[in-house]
Amino acid sequence: MNSELDSLCDVIVHLRKATKEAENNIEEPMDEDNLCTICYANEVAVVFHPCKHTSCRTCIKQQLMSCRECFYCKSNVESYSDIAPSSDMADTSAGGATSSK
């Protein structure tokens, strides 16, 4: 019985430590203006070509698995590129989005 009590005390101590660490590591909330308007979970990170609409990387990758249409204007997404912090865009291929099916 004592070993169970000791184990329980160890778990409680561990949980208290983990709770304090988690409270100290709280991230600043994301700017709502930079959230992806598709999922509202991630920041906007890519721009589609040629239409120039934007979303997070997760949403566009998911979209390109099933079709090549822009979420907003339904134009063909040929590729996408990262949105750089300085607004300069470095082109990257959209995982085969530039090739035709």
From TrEMBL:
Residues 36-74 form the RING-type domain. SUPFAM superfamilies: RING/U-box. It comes from the Eukaryota. The keyword RNA-binding does not apply. Residues 82-101 are annotated as: Disordered. It catalyses: S-ubiquitinyl-[E2 ubiquitin-conjugating enzyme]-L-cysteine + [acceptor protein]-L-lysine = [E2 ubiquitin-conjugating enzyme]-L-cysteine + N(6)-ubiquitinyl-[acceptor protein]-L-lysine. GO terms for cellular component: cytoplasm. It holds the Pfam family zf-C3HC4_3. It is an enzyme of class 2 (transferase). Its EC number is 2.3.2.27. One of its GO terms (biological process) is protein ubiquitination. The keyword Membrane does not apply. Keywords: Metal-binding, Transferase, Ubl conjugation pathway, Zinc, Zinc-finger. GO terms for molecular function: ubiquitin protein ligase activity; zinc ion binding. PANTHER family: E3 UBIQUITIN-PROTEIN LIGASE RNF123, RING FINGER AND SRY DOMAIN-CONTAINING. This is RING-type E3 ubiquitin transferase.
